[in-house]
Every structure is written in C-alpha cells, then in structure tokens.
Design goal:
Largest sheet: none
Structural class: mainly alpha
Order of helices and strands: HHHHHHHHHHHHH
Number of strands: 0
Number of domains: 2
Number of helices: 13
Helix content: over 70%
Distance between the termini: 53 Å
Length: about 250
C-alpha cells in the first residue's frame, strides 16, 4: 500500500478513544440491568450454599445468567462435572451462533486476538446492540460495549453474595426470586407473538416438575436441565417448524 493510501485509510478510521467511549455509552444501560439481575444471582447462589467468593468467580468467568443458575443448581444437588459441563454447553450454545452472526459486521482491523477476547463478553444484550449498530463494529467499540456490563455483572454478584447475610430474610427471599422473574420477562414477549414459544416453555416446566417429584427420576436431577432443554426444544421444532424462505413450513 502506498503512503498516500495509508494516510487516506487512517483518516477514514474512527479514533480508538472515540469508539471506546461510544461503546461505553451504549453498554451503560445493559450494565445497569445486569447489576440488579446479578445481585439476585449472588443472593440465590449463597442461599444454595455456594461461598460468596465462588459465586463472584462464577460470574467473572461465565457471564451468562441462565448458565450460571443451571450451574449452581447442579452444584447444589452434587451434580458431576460432566453434568455441569453439558448443561453449560447446551444452554450457552446460542452464543456461538450470535458470535458467528456478529462476525459479519466486524471491520477488517478486527484481528484474531480481538475476536477471541471480545467474544468472551458477547451476551444476548451485547449482541443485540452491536448488531443494530450502523456500520462496522471496531475493536475499541466492542471493548467499550462489554466493559460496563462485565464490571456490573461481577459487582452485582459480589453485592448480593455479601449482603445476603446482612439483609433481613424477607428481603433476601424476595430478591432471590428476582432472577426467575427475569426468565419470565424473557419468555413472555416472544410467547405473545408466537404460541409455540409458550408451549415449549410449558413443556420444559412440566418435564422439570416430573424430574422433581417422581422418585426414581430424582437420581437424575443433575441431568434434568439438559434433558428438559433438549426434549422441549426438539418437540418445539417438530410441532412448530419455522417457515422457509418461500413462506411455507418444512414438511
């Protein structure tokens, strides 16, 4: 590349500091939302017998609400490492698809190193904001976007974990169910638009109750999340196939 082309290219590239600050600004609402949810997770984890430090490390290394709740649930019932790993793989598999989709918007300067480091911070909300952004996604913007959500997710967990022993029991019990309210909030909007989502959610809930109350199935409690998730998803795919590009469902 000639010197003229290099200068021209540098002029068109947005300043890294400006891009990072834009990412911080876009990530602030996500971080504030994560603060309350992770606070509830910290309380839930401690109430399940998880040490506060362990709960914080889980949030710092996992960064996924559904996966973390499933993980501490398996730990609470003495689930094996295989059960926990499979649950994380199935529940968090969607992040691979999100990252693959998001890779189409990355700028040419997005090296493999940046892809590996920023992919760690990809969540449902981060993916939605980055995908909706006009133009290409640069490394500084992506680092800025994931900074506050990550910090507030870990900070909220720490607050919930350490304050659970200080707050009145009635308060901790109320906050402990807040994270389940988040899952309901995730399911309700798409369920209103598509009946299949509601049916699949109800099937998963019914299967979970079966594993909880049927005596001989209680031994599989560690695998219950995996079995319920896969069974409900397969049933939903068969009963409510997505339409093809020509508008007709697959036979």
């Amino acid at each position: 590349m000639s010197e003229t082309e290099t200068i021209s290219s540098n002029k068109t590239d947005p300043p890294a500091r400006s891009e990072y600050l834009k990412g911080l600004k876009d990530g602030l609402p996500i971080g504030l939302g994560y603060l309350s949810v992770s606070f509830a997770f910290g309380i839930t984890a401690v109430n399940m017998g998880i040490p506060p430090i362990a709960a914080i490390l889980i949030s710092m290394t996992c960064v996924t609400s559904a996966g973390q709740v499933a993980g501490i649930g398996a730990i609470a019932v003495s689930g094996s490492l295989v059960e926990i790993a499979l649950a994380q793989l199935i529940i968090n598999l969607r992040y691979s698809l999100m990252s693959l989709s998001l890779s189409q918007k990355l700028c040419s300067r997005y090296s493999l190193f940046h892809r590996l480091t920023t992919s760690f911070g990809v969540t449902d909300e981060v993916f939605a904001v980055a995908s909706a952004r006009t133009g290409e996604v640069t490394p500084p913007y992506m680092y800025g976007l994931i900074t506050l959500p990550y910090i507030m997710w870990a900070a909220g967990t720490a607050l919930g974990a350490f304050l659970s022993g200080i707050l009145p029991e009635i308060v901790t019990n109320a906050l402990g169910i807040a994270i389940y309210g988040m899952f309901i909030a995730i399911v309700v909007p798409p369920a209103k638009r598509f009946r299949g989502v509601l049916v699949v959610a109800l099937m998963a809930a019914a299967l979970s109750c079966v594993f909880r109350f049927v005596p001989f199935l209680q031994a599989l409690s560690g695998f219950s999340v995996i079995i319920c998730t896969v069974a409900a998803a397969v049933a939903g795919a068969l009963l409510f196939p997505r339409p093809t590009e020509d508008g007709e469902a697959d036979d």
